Amino acid sequence: MKDLTDLTIAEAREGLAERSFSAVELTQAHLAAIKSANRALNAFVLETPERALQMAETSDGRLAKGEGGALEGIPLGIKDLFCTKDVRTTACSHILDRFTPTYESTVTANLWDAGAVMLGKLNNDEFAMGSSNETSFYGEVVNPWRREGSDAPLVPGGSSGGSSAAVAARLCLGATATDTGGSIRQPAAFTGTVGLKPTYGRCSRWGIVAFASSLDQAGPITRTVRDSAIMLAAMAGHDPKDATSADIAVPDFGAAVGQGVKGLTIGIPKEYRVDGMAPEIEVLWQQGIAWLTEAGATIKDISLPHTMYALPSYYIVAPAEASSNLARYDGVRYGLREPGKDVISMYENTRESGFGAEVKRRVLIGTYVLSAGYYDAYYLKAQKVRTLIKRDFDQAFERVDAILTPTTPAPAFAAGEKSGDPLEMYLNDIFTVTVNMAGLPGISVPAGLSSEGTPLGLQVIGKAFDEETMFRVAQVVEDAAGLIAKPNDWWSKL
Amino acid sequence: MDAKSEKSNLIAGETGDWEVVIGMEVHAQVTSNAKLFSGASTEFGGEPNSHVSLVDAAMPGMLPVINEVCVSQAVKTGLGLKAEINLYSVFDRKNYFYPDLPQGYQISQYKNPIVGKGEVIVDMLTGERVIVGIERLHLEQDAGKSLHDQHPQNSYVDLNRSGVALMEIVSKPDLRSSEQAKAYVSKLRTILRYLGTCDGNMDQGSLRADVNVSVRRPGDEFGTRCEIKNVNSIRFIGQAIEYEARRQIEIIEDGGTIDQETRLFDAKTGETRSMRSKEEAHDYRYFPDPDLLPLELTQDFVDDIAKTLPELPDEKRARFIADYGLTPYDADVLVAERESVDYFEDVAKGRDAKQAANWVINELFGRLNKEGLTINDSPISSAQLGGIVDLIKAETISGKIAKDVFDIVWTEGGDPAEIVEARGMKQVTDTGAIEKAVDEVLAANPDKVEQAKAKPALAGWFVGQVMKATSGKASPQAVNALIKAKLGLD
Q1: What CATH number has the domain bearing residue B450?
Q2: pLDDT category, B2, cuts 50, 70, 90?
Q3: How many domains does chain A have?
Q4: Which chain A residues contact residue B61 at CB under 8 A?
Q5: What is the mean pLDDT of chain B?
Q6: Would the CA dihedral through B381, B382, B384, B388 be positive or negative?
Q7: Are B104 and A370 a contacting pair at CB < 8 A?
Q8: Residue B404 class from Cβ within 10 Å (0-12 exposed, 13-18 middle, 19+ buried)?
Q9: Is B66's Cβ below 8 Å from some Cβ in A?
Q10: What are phi and psi of B407, to 5 degrees?
């Protein structure tokens, strides 16, 4: 039999239902894996073993009676951006490093209602601002994957680097994550996992530390497309506490997986063939097109003409919203407070000490683009571009059912390689930000390995609130790619 | 001359007359149980920080959700101000740091307010009528309160008010004197209280005004204005404008210029002082709040609210004058407070409205004023006062006796009819008894009888004598008729 930590969520559910193992055993196996791995990977910023075992025991009780929710007894990791009641929640920022919420985010509450078990809180870029998980106050996360023949640490992507690393390293069966410009899909691509950003409004944002409200969306990182569908079904749903949450019924995502792509038309946007894209990414993309063709899909070239403006616009809209969203961290009511001679200096000292360099950079950019005299030239123009990007997709989706692109222009890079150059770092998001700007669902599926033996992902973009078609396409890519070898375990031996 | 530049409104300076130009931004707290974007209570006077939700405290990950009641109230107010209702409006963030502003921004409406242009009619005691244009009304969150007197070094913050819904009602610069400004705020307050959209309690901060003041020579362009922030009584509004206008006139007459700035009114000294200059003004970095979708209303929603609109003071006033023959002054007095007008209409219902108005204004309001009471504290209910008016109408008591009954009801309470019955205050309508009294008075004053025959007006003297003789209980009408008949004056 497989190691318990090697199971997919779907397999673990079967095993639990058949009582082949208990939820406590499943949880213990993961707690042990975390214990041996975390010093090397730094994926968890907080482990909650007691709570995990308690939740697992409760699950065993329900399972013994033949009851239980869709995720009964399934051990998960939670990105530290999700507020968890009575469990420290920091957004991996010094400014919140002693903050313990008295409330539970809607998404995690949904997961616990479905019977899931919380193993702990996962590392991420500070306030989800980053593409390499190098901006966390709790230190960088190390990608379990390494280049062939090299011990040099690679980044796990960001901002959900703790989530992607933990899922790839078999420290949890699945993890929650959030995606504002690619923060689920890019780390998934870098770690050989499946990362899904649902349609904006599909999951409630209530209780998730906000980065950029109009772009933020929660989603799962898992090891298979089926698991992604299972987790999303549990996370999603209308929440009256979030005015941007859509009052749309959650379909049976699991049923969509495996329906194939026969009869579907898949769009290939020519604008995603960008300068500086690694040749092997192009090869991978062509491979994906071939797989879908073989599976019966029709391929159609499409144009998304405003793609080139997406990244600069994103880096106006997201920091603008962030500069305002992060104003509440002022040392007055909770979190860090650095005293000063008056209230202004208290604010300055608190925010100077509490925020890291990347967060400060974005707060400054955001403040600048919203300032009198600059608003029209930056923020307003960026919003207009956003409308045009949305229109590009609307027009494309009149002709196609889903869109296939690479997830990132290159595979995982080495730690420190890009952290000195923000612009180069931001380029990581080039294929993913458009999807956030348009509010669409996107999923990254492992599709192959780079010449260096590291994972590569393909992205499937769906119509708004049509995750089902997206899942169908993703499943075909996953099947065709075959199971990608898991990373060699070097971390537990340290 | 422009009606607004009435001579009487001008201020005499050293170098000639000046005209003050005033525009107001009134902040009216919306009457609602819960705050604008959270379920926390809006009740006044709770323990500090006892009405604070996670949203009001801006905890991480908390999101605002619009309270529909507040939206209805804003629409209702807009309709009451005869204003355009914008079916599409947007909530924006106004960003600034202050300890009593937990989010670091106030959610307000900037470019797209819920209510557009309207007007308020202000009738001055002088008979002058001022039409004040309303520029807009928008919804916004109130801030909390900083407490500076609780600790030697630190300030405390009370977030009970944080997130309470306010309507900011912005007038055009149509006011030309402190009296007009005061009358405008009074009228606005009356309208809001009729509508039930703001309780108008200025001492609890439910209604505050930012007052924009500038001066100019009559007929000139507008001068540079100063904004006096957060004035919280009608009297202070008047004082602040008077002081500020004088201050600006003196500066200009001394050859200076007015700096556009924000000023504070000090109630202790009656003066305004500089708070921050235009250069120090905040850049609020307004942008649409991404946590809230644009507010889109249907015309049906607005129409349904329109159906619930009560009769407003202007309409009531016009009706009282036209239908009841009340003087404009009496009508103004009655409609000024919703409680007063409700009381009056209770008394007037099914009775002679003019007589009811007399009794409410002269006897009741007179007595309330004398004793420093409001209509809500009146010891005499509208039913009791109506009872007194009924007794007069039925000629059971005379107007004079009615005042005695009023006194008794005021101090002791009770049903007027029973009081009159029990205390033998009933008017004597027995003509035999009256005739006897008349005969006695006529017989006792033969000289006056002769004089009265020549000069009929003297008949009144006999009436008074007879009333005196009957302790006021004789029906004055009956006495009058008898005397006239016996003197042969008919």
Answers
A1: 1.10.10.410
A2: very low
A3: 1
A4: 82-83, 101, 105, 205-210
A5: 92
A6: positive
A7: no
A8: middle
A9: yes
A10: -60, -45
Does B155 touch chain A if contact means CB atoms closer than 8 Å?
A: yes
For A415-421, which contacts have Cβ atoms below 8 Å and span 24 or more sequence positions? A415/A132, A415/A134, A415/A140, A415/A142, A415/A152, A415/A153, A415/A154, A415/A155, A416/A134, A417/A155, A418/A131, A418/A132, A419/A132, A419/A134
Q: Where are the alpha helices (DSSP H) in A295-402?
A: 307-325, 343-354, 357-370, 381-396
C-alpha count within 13 angstroms, C-beta hemisphere, residue A162: 35
| Same domain for B295 and B403 | no
Taking only residues 400 to 439 of chain A, the set having a beta carbon closer than 8 angstroms to any beta carbon of chain B reads: none
CB contact under 8 Å between A333 and B58, yes or no, is yes
Helix (H, G, I), strand (E, B) or coil at A3: coil
The strand pair at A174-179 and A75-79 is best described as parallel
Contact call for B104 and A328, based on CB within 8 A: yes
* C-alpha dihedral, B106 to B110 to B115 to B120, nearest 10°: 90
Please tell me which of the candidates A243, A321, A324 has its beta carbon nearest to residue B292.
A243
Count the domains in chain B: 3
Residue B27 to chain A, least CA–CA distance (Å): 24
Q: Is A191 inside any structural domain?
A: yes
A79 given a catalytic annotation: yes
A377 interfacial to chain B (CB closer than 8 Å): no
Q: How confident is the model at residue B21 (pLDDT cuts 50, 70, 90)?
A: very high
With contact defined as beta carbons under 8 Å apart, do A403 and A270 qualify?
no
Is the domain of B129 the same as that of B51? yes
The whole domain housing A121 covers: 4-257
DSSP code of residue A485? P
3-class state of residue B63 by DSSP: coil
Domain extent at residue B193? 3-305
pLDDT tens digit sequence for B99-149:
999 999 999 999 999 999 999 999 998 889 999 999 999 999 999 999 988
Query: Looking at the domain assignment, is residue A338 inside a domain?
Result: no
- Tell me how far apart the alpha carbons of residues A335 and A347 are, in angstroms, rounded to a whole number: 12
pTM of the model: 0.91
Does residue A221 form part of some domain? yes
> Which of B305, B332, B354 is where one domain is finished?
B305
C-alpha closest to that of B288 among B40, B110, B490, B77: B110
Q: Which residue in the block uniquely carries the two structure tokens 């107010």?
A: B77
Given B246, B279, B305, the domain boundary residue is B305
**Is B396 found in the same domain as B461?**
no
The distance between the two most distant Cα atoms of chain B, rounded to a whole number of Å, is 99
Same domain, B349 and B366: yes
Percent of chain B at pLDDT > 90 equals 76
Residue/partner pairs of A59-65 with CB below 8 Å, 24 or more apart = A59/A16, A59/A23, A59/A115, A59/A117, A60/A22, A60/A23, A60/A24, A62/A115, A63/A16, A63/A17, A63/A19, A63/A22, A63/A23, A64/A19
**Token pair listed for A194:** 């499946």
Long-range contacts of B337-345 (CB under 8 A, 24+ apart): B337/B190, B337/B193, B337/B375, B338/B190, B338/B193, B338/B194, B339/B374, B339/B375, B339/B376, B340/B365, B340/B375, B341/B313, B341/B316, B343/B375, B343/B378, B343/B382, B344/B382
User: Do B91 and B207 sit in the same domain of this protein?
Assistant: yes
CATH for A175? 3.90.1300.10
The yes-or-no answer on residue A159 being catalytic is yes
pLDDT per position as a tens digit, B414-440: 999 999 888 888 877 677 888 888 888
Cα B25 to Cα B28: distance, rounded to the nearest angstrom: 10
Mean pLDDT, rounded, for B461-476: 82
Q: Is there a domain that residue A77 lies in?
A: yes
Query: Which residue in B198, B256, B258, B188 sits closest to B223, CA to CA?
Result: B258
User: How high is the pLDDT of residue A483?
Assistant: 67
Mark whether B349 and B483 lie in a shared domain: no
